[in-house]
Amino acid sequence: MKVLYVCSELFPFLKTGGLADVSAGLPPELQALGCDVRILMPAFPAISEVAHGVRQVATLPHGNTPWGHAPVLPAAKVALARLPGLELPVYLLQSAVLYERPGNPYLGPDGKDWDDNAKRFAALGWAGASLGQGLDREWTPDVIHCHDWHAGLTPAYVRAFAEAGLATPATVFTIHNLAYQGIFPRPLFAQLGLPSSYFSVNGLEFYGHGSFMKAAIQYADRITTVSPTYAKEILLESHGWGLEGLLRERSGVLSGILNGVDYHVWSPTSDALLPTPYDVDTVAKKSIAKTALQADFGLEQRADALVFGVVSRLTEQKGLHLLPQILSELVQRGGQLALLGQGGTALEQAFVDAAIRYPGQVGVRIGYDEVTAHAVLAGADVILVPSAFEPCGLTQLYGLRYGTLPLVRRVGGLADTVVDCTLENLDADTATGFVFDELSADGLLSAIRRAFALARRPGEWAAVQRRGMLLRFDWPSAAQHYLAMYQSLRPGAISHLHPLPGKHTV
């Protein structure tokens, strides 16, 4: 089975969030199951600079289509390349005008979206659909698996080809975060090269604008999210971001498949970024990582301090606006905070101010780098993930593996992966962390107090650590679920000419 994986980032070459980890983890496991997998992504500088064996395949199609005209986009070429350490061919969508820009792939130096993001990622969708039509004469996919709004127009273009009577691949779309939808103004629609009927309430129109995310949800054959609980949550008004009506109508093809962890990268037994390796039987060596973390973040060298770690975007989605409100009690109880992250200016400043207010107890590093992320995950006693919503979350999974107890809110993938340290769960030997419900400073503080209470019972703490470290959330399991889905789509058949959903709320 030939599978084209369409995404915008790939670890370790380009990463802004968990999508990069998924892009690195899932395709190789699908390959191990016998799939012929190739990746398509924009030729951002971070990718182009390390690519080798680059071979031009084709020019992105322009001109007429069976339904009208192709997208009006800057010239772009599709090349086939290899990336270091990746045993998969990668298609690079090359366009200097669209992709050769410094820094973040989505944001300009001012921290705002690039003005032409709609065109940049429409080109990605058009390239994916064109590969589905044999743009590479040597390889045509049976299934195109698209990820997040950046690839969201791919299923729409594929549907247009199918409605014109052409044989097309099946399409799968994975929602990594419904909050980011790829909204564009209506006038731009005319340049996207889609049938005019697609700009409608039963197409990609979204309150007078267009939405890449809605396009994918409307036109993909199958829709997945990255955890079972999130798949249920997005059907509700509270978590649906205006798309809950459409999602409910398409719930028959919607499922949640939990993300995995690449344990070759995230494992204290083999992590070259740690001062010393450790495992479930030598977890006492974790104290060496703790001491190193305290030194690195300017924290007092106290073995008895309960160190809380944060590795996150600093946004309200991540619930981190609650943390400054309760830092005084955390410090008063003998706790410390080591925070690595970046995001909103106001929240960044709040944590910088906290580090000044609590010297030696609060350490803050604005930004992100893999070395420090590993240091925090290994050196902290507790990893904080108090999210307002969380499709899957990987940080809590890393924490479990490193013996760093996750403290999370009961939402999305956090609810699916962390078992609360209630008395009942401790007695049943199932507890793996701390879980709270109410999105408030009081809710977070109550869980932090329970963490301090458990720390006073080192035997129970060690038992919880051990249970978490022995858990496995791996990519082979997830890949099996995806392969079964691909096989159900009867590759090569025009399976997606299902009736369009009826009218819905957006």
Protein architecture, described:
The chain has 506 residues and is α/β, with parallel strands linked by helices. It has two domains: 2-260 and 477-488, Rossmann fold, CATH 3.40.50.2000; 283-470, 3-Layer(aba) Sandwich (Rossmann fold). Helices cover 34% and strands 19% of the residues. It contains 18 helices and 20 strands. The protein has helices at residues 18-32, 45-48, 96-99, 117-132, 154-163, 212-219, 228-233, 244-249, 286-296, 323-332, 345-357, 370-379, 395-401, 412-417, 423-427, 441-455, 458-470, 475-488; strands spanning 2-6, 36-42, 52-59, 64-65, 68-69, 77-82, 90-94, 143-147, 170-175, 183-184, 205-206, 209-211, 222-225, 254-256, 306-314, 335-343, 362-366, 382-385, 405-409, 434-436. α10 (323-332) links the parallel β15 (306-314) and β16 (335-343). α4 (117-132) packs across α5. The two termini are 36 Å apart.
CATH names the topology of the largest domain as: Rossmann fold
* Residue-averaged pLDDT: 94
Radius of gyration, whole Å: 23 Å
**CATH class categorisation of the largest domain:** Alpha Beta
Q: Work out the strand percent.
A: 15-25%
Spatial shape: elongated
Q: Major sheet: order of its strands?
A: 3-6-7-2-1-8-9-13-14
Q: Could you name the CATH homologous superfamily of the largest domain? A: Glycogen Phosphorylase B
**Poorly predicted residue ranges:** 491-506
The tally of structural domains comes to 2
The biggest beta sheet is recorded as: 9 strands, mixed
Number of helices: 18
Number of strands: 20
Helix content: 25-40%
Report how far the terminal alpha carbons are from each other. Answer: 36 Å
What's the architecture of the largest domain in CATH terms? 3-Layer(aba) Sandwich
Q: By helix and strand content, what is the structural category?
A: alpha/beta
